[in-house]
Amino acid sequence: MRDSFKTRQSLAVGSQSYEIYSLPALEGRDLGRLPFSLKILLENLLRFEDGINVTREDVEALLAWDAKAAPSYEIAFTPARVIMQDFTGVPVVVDLAAMREAMTRLGGDPDEINPLAPAELVIDHSVQVDEYGAADSLRKNNAIEFARNGERYSFLRWGQTAFSNFKVVPPNTGIVHQVNIEHLARVVFADDKNGKLRAYPDTLVGTDSHTTMVNGLGVLGWGVGGIEAEAAMLGQPVTMLIPQVIGFRLKGALPAGATATDLVLTVTEMLRKKGVVDKFVEFFGDGLAALPLADRATIANMSPEFGSTCAIFPIDEETLRYLELTGRSAEQRALVEAYAKAQGLWRTNGMREADYTDVLELDLATVEPSLAGPKRPQDRVPLRSSKEIYRKHLAKMAEERAQKNPGATGKAPAVSGGKSFEVADGAVLIAAITSCTNTSNPAVLVAAGLLARNARQRGLTAKPWVKTSLAPGSRVVTDYLQKAGLLTDLEAVGFYVVGYGCTTCIGNSGPLRPEISDAVKAGDVIATSVLSGNRNFEGRVHPEVKMNFLASPPLVVAYALAGTMDVDLASEPLGTGTNGKPVYLKDVWPSAQEIQQALAGSVNSSMFKSGYASVFAGDENWNAIAVPEGEVYQWDATSTYVRNPPYFDGMTMTPSAVADIRGARVLALL
């Protein structure tokens, strides 16, 4: 590398010395005006300046960034690592396996084919909620998952052992983005380069749009397609235009009763109205001091929903607190702090405001309890208006139903579990505590547990037509809910753990019970779902559910108790208690003090350390899988899924001469 700006320097951290590419060494440059995210890109260009992919002119272009100008200059960004999930990641591993076979066929060493950038794949997209509402739901869903995915899992287990620089987090562990922030993310990378320790920002691309969740830790990254991810794994840079950066100033603190979910739905609404597609969004302001890391991660997670490339937060004391809570070593935390401060990447209250393309502002004190729906995540609905908004949409949908099915009544009787009831328009058929967006946040999970406890004490439980589920994003969630004594309360009102994966959030809701499904069809019922996910597009959650509302985990529980969206939770009861009196949301909603007391007594660093100590090992189901041996994969010719792609068929060590293309036909004339 050229280092034409002479920025290669040493950074002492304790007894260790690290080689870094120092931003302050760019003397005479006003780096304070650059947003946090562009400073990370700047360091990346300095470190990879080779005169070919990255030139001195590229660095100068970034240094001269005009916040107001339309993007026009292309640079090459080289991420430190790649993260994947099992649906979009499998084709990437298939290609690596195909390269190994081709290498062997041509007389080379197949062991030369390995990811150059560290690559991690988390299996989370395959578990489905087939069973629910019982203590053995998790075991049964796991058994079904492994039966359905045996071939894929066998292939990934082979890859886990065959490739170096490639790790697999097995099924039944957690959701990729939550595992990333709780364990995989480094914030600052350290590696050995030519016998020298180097330190540089943790950056990544991922094969999932919600890769941006890690932006909450100050780690720059976003979702890409499989080809881009594969190229990054093989050491190739990602080409991009130097982006515009929208600043989002936060001030104040969230009021009592408002959750991180309410905050992210408010932010999503604001940024969708603003229009931030192809832009970076960067959060700043003294309000960050009152915003826990888990809340930041919740906001960063929904970057795809408000349309930005990323939604990043700077590194500060709260970042270090979270790293300590999640079991990162004292040495790693010291490196993060020293590096961030040395590079001007450390946030403090009252610091200079960077130049931004535009700035939005939100006073956290104005955030109120909210949902979003019924079809788009940016359509925020204040809880106080939820019944009104629901009825507005119902009226339109009922009118369309009357035209298509004049005999539909919008209701039908059903019998389930020995109970007779009516399934009617507005019925909540699915209530799911799901998605890394919210299950990564202990405060909202504990709030859901406390609400369940309060409801249980009053004799309330989910209505019999509601399919309930609790799908934590990591095993640590179960640990702290158990320690707080809240898991049994959630189970008592219907929310049993069904799996550790994306489940309902990606449409893996599983079937409704036949008797419920029959009633929906008989009455052409306009049914609803309430989930703590990040997307609610029509048809995504379940084909028999017409309206989908995003909500915080405690509100998911509340709507499961009420059993309908046709209710004003501010003035109408959730149900009737064992004493015969109505029970209202205000009667069971936990106070901020209750939540904090439960958090203080149940969430600690040892849980994360023990929970992730053997994160790549897997359970008995994973370890019972038969794994092909050898460094070259033995393809099954009868497989319809894991197939050897034809890219390398006919390849020789000496490329043949370029031949004319004959017999081709025009596909499109534009």
UniProtKB/TrEMBL annotation:
Q: What class of enzyme is it?
A: lyase
- Enumerate the Gene Ontology biological process terms: tricarboxylic acid cycle
Q: Which Gene3D superfamilies match?
A: 6.10.190.10, Aconitase, domain 3
Which cofactors are named for this entry? [4Fe-4S] cluster
- Pfam families, sorted: Aconitase
Per the UniProt record, which EC number(s) apply here? 4.2.1.3
| A GO molecular function held by the record | RNA binding
Q: Which residues form the Aconitase/3-isopropylmalate dehydratase large subunit alpha/beta/alpha domain?
A: 65-563
Keywords noted in UniProt: Iron, Iron-sulfur, Lyase, Metal-binding, RNA-binding, Tricarboxylic acid cycle
Please state the pathway this protein functions in, per its UniProt record: Carbohydrate metabolism; tricarboxylic acid cycle
Which catalysed reactions does the entry list for this protein? citrate = D-threo-isocitrate
Matches recorded under PANTHER family: ACONITASE/IRON-RESPONSIVE ELEMENT FAMILY MEMBER
Family as reported in the entry's similarity comment: Belongs to the aconitase/IPM isomerase family.
Query: What's the subunit arrangement here?
Result: Monomer.
Full protein name: aconitate hydratase
This protein's gene is called: acn
